[in-house]
Amino acid sequence: xxxxxxxxxxxxxxxxxxxxxxxxxxxxxxxxxxxxxxxxxxxxxxxxxxxxxxxxxxxxxxxxxxxxxxxxxxxxxxxxxxxxxxxxxxxxxxxxxxxxxxxxxxxxxxxxxxxxxxxxxxxxxxxxxxxxxxxxxxxxxxxxxxxxxxxxxxxxxxxxxxxxxxxxxxxxxxxxxxxxxxxxxxxxxxxxxxxxxxxxxxxx
Length: 204
Description:
mainly alpha
């Protein structure tokens, strides 16, 4: 049980693209005071947990509503996740452009959009949570995945709380490299989801 929880936790945490979010947070919060930064982090954490649980717990009803099979959604979600990972590896997630897009927000209004959604809870994470939600059976598995999601969100909050220390420790180049490494792990998860969907679709 503990091993399963840790595996789920790591998958969800990496799919939250923590190091890209860290870079984005550092850029967008550079003019905020420490209390304001903590308020932003709290808002982000709550938004991620609430939105993530919604997709996790109600994803199967969305499948039923639109007549989507789980295998088809796995292929679609895995493809989106894989393409998102490629963007991370290539460096297409431009922090500076994100800062420009956030110029219309006042001070810490960027906590929900664009920081929590879609930077943390993006198409890839949404798809994976909906797949997990459709696959789990029983309250034990539901609780396990939910706790993994909450633990990943809290861990992300911890990373953001020590953002300035990490920036000083790793430097600008380090913060540019880490999202690419994360992208490699995320691309592998996306590929695995695609293969699982194809396998189920072909009844292999």
